[in-house]
Amino acid sequence: MGDAVRLRSRAQWFRQSVDLGWASDSPGEGFDGWMISARTYRNLHESFYGLGPSSRKRSERYADHRLIQTQIRRSIQLPGSAWAQIWVEQRLDIVRGHEPVGDSAPPSPHLDLLTEQGEYGLWTVGLDVGLTSRWAGLQFHLRSTSGDASHELFGVVVDRTWRLGSDRFLTARFMLDRTLESSRDVPYFLLPRLDDRLAPGWDRNRFYGNDRVVMGLVFVQPIFRVLKSHRYEGLVHLGLSQVYDDVAEDFDLRVALGPHRDGLASGAVPLEPTLGIGSRFVALRGGNVIASAMLGFSAEGLQATTFRVTHRLSAWRPSVR
User: Fold this and answer.
1) How far apart (Å, rounded) are the C-alpha atoms in residues 265 and 50?
2) Per residue in 241-277, pLDDT tens?
3) What is the spatial distance between Cα 194 and Cα 242, in angstroms, rounded to a whole number?
4) For residue 141, what are the β-bridge partners?
5) For 207-239, what is the HEC assignment?
6) 231, 222 Cβ separation under 8 angstroms
7) How far apart are CA 91 and CA 121, in angstroms?
8) Positive or negative, the Cα torsion across 205, 209, 210, 212?
9) Could you tell me if 244 and 173 are in contact, meaning their C-beta atoms sit under 8 angstroms apart?
């Protein structure tokens, strides 16, 4: 009767996860209802390079990180095109030690070390508020985590899309996340993260910091259509991003390609550029991405190659037709 259910699973040699979610209606524009989700996660080789912009690749550690997480979210449609979501989350993070990768050097003295092994029981209360107009999308989020550690975060995301002729699009995004307050022993996995998921070109889990700034442009170019129902598209992603100990003190509008990061934990920290080049196969009905691939480039070289296949089972029959 309109309910939506999603199940996702990952099975790899060192990383496994299962996600199960339910919504009282199909989430999307103007969604008004409840969402409940649960997740279990196990990663024996979760990379960690240290905290802050000075983290170095040769300091890489592998963490054994496990997670059990449940979340309840209430989505409310506000007057106009505004919306709000209130959510509560309970999570249990288990870190079962960590080890150097190959002949990795120890992290620099001014960097915090990887969270010591142990269990972290945490509760988080969050509020997301958004507004969508024909000009831009605006979203604010606020979360407060307490329990074995505490962390409060405020963030804002601004998106703007332009249509450049027939089916060509250019999207600009600005993202800021700022830590308002945290305990001294806050685990790294609660901090804002910068990696290939936000800026193609970085490794997975590449940077962690108290604050994060991400700016990007994405250009979409249609290449050809298939059966009048699908389209193959090319994408170019240009990004400027950085993590900071304190963005108010450390932010700098300069752009530096691969700056020497030692000693950047305080003072002016330049933004670093990244480039992503990829393509995707899209169902025109609903805009669902069926398959996508992306190569990422940064000052550290070719860092990310991703390939994803995603399709709703209920959409197979209409697609084949």
Assistant:
1) 11
2) 999 989 999 898 888 887 666 555 556 889 999 999 9
3) 7
4) 128, 155
5) EECCEEEEEEEEEEEEEEEECCCEEEEEEEEEE
6) yes
7) 6
8) negative
9) no
* Half-sphere exposure of residue 154: CA atoms within 13 angstroms, side-chain side: 3
What does the alpha-carbon distance between residue 210 and residue 155 come to, in Å, rounded to a whole number? 12
Q: How far apart are CA 223 and CA 279, in angstroms?
A: 9
Average pLDDT, rounded, for the chain = 85
List the one residue out of 70, 69, 61 whose CA is nearest residue 98.
61
Provide the token pair at 34: 């409840």
- pTM of the shown model: 0.85
